[in-house]
Design goal:
Distance between the termini of chain B: 36 Å
Structural class of chain A: mainly beta
Shape of chain A: globular
Radius of gyration of chain A: 14 Å
Oligomer: heterodimer
Largest sheet of chain B: 7 strands, mixed
Number of helices of chain B: 0
Helix content of chain A: under 10%
């Protein structure tokens, strides 16, 4: 079955860095576009970043542009989010999610449980 | 950027009642709209895509309608497991992919 497991979250000081990972299984990872979506405590969903299935295209939310970088290793079925210059408003649960665009299904069809990032001194 | 606005913020209903949730886009998104359900401590779950197509395994009591800028998610008869937060999302004009702020369906 499709599964995505995030890791790498934790407590980091403002201005610090963190790398999140998302290990995917149960599907052909290299054929799917992927996203990171975050949710601040008690708040709604915010799209963060996108990467095309072959890694050749990335997009970012304005709130993270220039600070975050999304990448993937299709040989290891793993998605990454490199986060630099972290701020308190980056505190959130970060979910990786699959984009089935190009199949008959649309939207974000599978989500990981998320990993919590807390930016605090 | 397309802004998605959901109403109401909270819907207080009893089991067995009908729930009607609204989502409005700041400009047309055609039928490129999805609905998600999220329960506390869980990841969102895709319910509806293409404004009206149920995702795999979603019960028939969930239905979506609308196109352009006005959309509705209807739960025909609320079950205990349906009390949750619901989000709409547009995937017509991206980036960014944008979500509504959510509607909480709570037990009255």
């Amino acid at each position: 079955q499709v599964q995505m497991v995030e890791s790498g979250g934790g407590v980091v000081q403002p201005g610090g860095s963190l790398r999140l990972s998302c290990a995917a299984s149960g599907f052909t990872f290299s054929t799917f576009d992927m996203h990171w979506v975050r949710q601040a405590p008690g708040k709604g969903l915010e799209w963060v970043a996108f990467i095309r299935h072959d890694g050749k295209s990335q997009y970012y939310a304005d709130s993270v542009k220039g600070r975050f970088s999304i990448s993937r290793d299709n040989s290891e079925n793993t998605l990454y989010l490199h986060m630099n210059t972290l701020r308190s408003d980056d505190t959130a649960v970060y979910h990786c999610t699959r984009d089935p665009a190009g199949t008959p299904v649309y939207g974000f069809d599978y989500w990981g449980q998320g990993t919590l990032v807390t930016v605090s001194s | 950027e397309i802004v998605m606005t959901q109403s109401p913020a909270t819907l207080s209903l009893s089991p067995g009642e009908r729930a009607t949730l609204s989502c409005r886009a700041s400009q047309s998104v055609s039928s490129n709209l999805a609905w998600y359900q999220q329960k506390p401590g869980q990841a969102p779950r895709l319910l509806i895509y293409g404004a009206s197509t149920r995702a795999t395994g979603i019960p028939a009591r969930f239905s979506g309608s609308g196109s352009g800028t006005e959309f509705t998610l209807t739960i025909s008869s609320l079950q205990s497991e349906d009390f949750a937060v619901y989000y709409c999302q547009q995937y017509n004009n991206w980036p960014p992919w944008t979500f509504g702020q959510g509607t909480k369906v709570e037990i009255k």
